[in-house]
Amino acid sequence: MEYTKEFKDRDEALAFLTRVGYFRSGAYRYVFRQLLPADQIDERLHQYRSDDYIPGASMAHVMKLEAFDFKLARVCQEGLLEFEVRLRAAIAHMLAAENVAAHASKNFLDAQNCDKPSGDRTKFEAWTATWREAVRSGAEDEDFIKHHLLKYPQQPVPIWAVTEVLSFGNLPFLFELMKTSDAREVARTFGFVHPRAFGAVLRMMVDFRNACAHGSRLFNRAFKRTLSLKSHETHGDLLSHLLEPSFTATPKPHQRVYIYAAALAFMLRSHTSGTGWHLSFKTQVRKLNIELQAPDGSQLISPYVSMGFPADWTELDLWKPTPSREL
Hints:
Elements: H1 10-20, H2 22-29, E1 33-35, E2 49-53, H3 59-98, H4 111-114, E3 117-118, E4 121-122, H5 123-138, H6 143-151, H7 159-165, H8 171-177, H9 180-189, H10 195-213, H11 257-270, H12 277-285, H13 303-306, H14 323-326
Antiparallel strand pairs: 1-2, 3-4
Helix pairs in contact: 3-7, 3-9, 3-10, 3-11, 3-12, 8-10, 10-11
């Protein structure tokens, strides 16, 4: 990899490596390395590229890609925070209609799911330990938890307080224990017809949120969970393009950042509060502009090639301003 005139001196590259670390920078340098000949590829060791870089590649390209990805994660984190707040409110609202302490009794949850095994105990027993630990931990920092425990020591903390101290990762756990009728209403709040599909997306959003919050790479990433929607599982047609088997040229299309972001945008837009997050996301993705060709003459890096985006994604209704924002 060569230094270019874009660098005043090598100290700029050194400062970059000091800031992000050599190992993290390797995730961005990797895509600029040349592919190995077919007879030298070792799939068992996941060795597909040589140590040589594509002609014209430079540290400037690596730095530009990392800066883009860092900003993309921040934008995604903002959308996930919007979703998290709304999800907490929706779950609390539905369960409070059952009982102020619906989380603490199988009478207000799905008893069959509650009795399913989870390790050496039932799911309800595991859930009880989870929310009690959240309350115990929350009492150290949150006055509203301290107030309840002191004033009403014999009563469970109400559901609307519990949902505020649960981690985002534990919200799907509670959602899956809700009665089907209650879970369905929460799912409908976010554009889903049935809680099963929505529950699967919740798990995806937890992975998505963790990747963003922990500074993990989004570019060229294949998440572990896949999203394969059916036509009857969501309201409207904003996600209908995902039903096409070849909606993108990226390998593992159902595990890429696009499909995660598309699901997030859809849920935020389906909520009665609406959103402008999808426009912020669109603006950031369009900033990925690294003009460098692969040896075969194709564009080396693009959302379509590396991140699961459809070629015409900016023209899809999902990413256009909502009518209320056009007024």
